[in-house]
Amino acid sequence: MESINRRKFLGVAALAGTGMAIAPPTVLGGEKNIIPMTLGDNDKPALLGGPKAHPDRFPQWPVYDSTEEQALLDILNSSKWGRLDGKATERFEQEYAKTVGTKHCLATNSGTSSLYTILGVMNLGPGDEVVMPAYTFVATYNTVVLNYALPILVDTDIETFQIDTDKMEKAITKETKVLMPVHKGGSPANIDKIMAIAQKHQLPVIEDACQAHLAEWKGKRVGSYGMAGAFSFQSSKHLNCAEGGAITSNDEDFIKACYRFHNQGQGGSADSYGAGKETRGTNMRITEFQSSVLLSQMTRLEVQSRKRWQNATYLTRLLNEIPGITPARLYDGVTNSAYHFYMFRYDKSHFAGMTRGRFMEAMRAEGVSCMVGYGHLNKDPYVLGLANNKHYLKIYGEKTMKQWLERIQCPQNDRLTEEESLWFTQNLLLGTTRDMDQIAEAVRKIQKNAGELKN
Questions:
Q1: Segment 25-83, tens digit of pLDDT
Q2: Where are the domains of the chain?
Q3: Rounded to 5 degrees, what are φ and ψ at 21?
Q4: Could you report how far apart the first and last alpha carbons of the chain are, in Å?
Q5: Overall fold of domain 2-63+300-373+417-453
Q6: I need a surface site. Which of 92, 178, 185, 407 has the fewest CB within 10 A?
């Protein structure tokens, strides 16, 4: 049985590896002058019958090989599959704490679980408020609402796609219990300003770093600044085990409380359960299978991170030469962006009025896919429905919930998400310098022929 499983696994791995060999990082720092490509008169966009700008496939995700296979087989054959039975999770927690630069790490079964555990330990509940960005994945919002607290959605700094820290401070009230910035797209939010606001108002900071593996602010990795950081290891993430997460912290008592919460409110181990100290808990435990995959994936994490950073830096210099395309600005304190997404803005006035949707269609035809990205949580029916939720009306009252709808107006975020935002996914940045050239070439072809393309 083992040999059959092994052959199947290797076959799948070989197929996946066909499009995903990772070349050594290309050092781009010495390239000071970018010379834009010139397009020939007959070089039409693919939608108009021309050749694709990028005819080959971009690297696929995830990347894996026999390292992951052997790790999984080792756990399978050990018969110790749960975190309370084996040692893989404990080893991963030690390694990831070192990677982030914190004293402690607790692995969980998802990034959402990490946030939920953190807020549970902080005893967040009805009547409390959490200040967070409107531009984020819905999981950030969900973890607040699951505790029956009020999520206060803050407008976006449109140049960076990150939370607007000036508006963040204005959103604070006497009911605010937590500041929860998100390092969106893997790029650090304005940490210096956030920590200054937190200190001024004596509020804890929880970093939603679910997309920001190895991202740095002034040489120090995100997830190490606030009371705790939350990471995701979902299948699209740079560190990937399909579903998984982690909590990082320098506070030993806090991380112990997180362990108890994620372990049904109990301490101890498989041999000896200690009594819980809190009044709430649930099961957010990771498995040994997931932890073994994470340990294997970590062998590539640093190299892949450097490659994304180098390619993104090069691509930004190319795209900055194209009117109407504006890459998301990094704050001065950013010394590394994880680039989970490469985020940029599209201005149709420089493309003969061509809609963003048509631009995306033209890019796909060139062999370069892009997407709109996250929408506006402050206008999402799923979120707005909270104002009529019977439990929230019972807790807060109709007047407060109407005021909440007024408080979460985010005009800059509306403009960004409805008109301008676009993303490239992280796997594109694992390609070559030539791939980056071809992305820019696709944009220039489309711009040159925008008048014809828009019709």
A1: 333 333 334 444 445 544 899 999 999 999 889 999 999 999 999 999 999 999 999 99
A2: 2-63+300-373+417-453, 66-295
A3: -70, 130
A4: 59
A5: Aspartate Aminotransferase, domain 1 (3.90.1150)
A6: 407
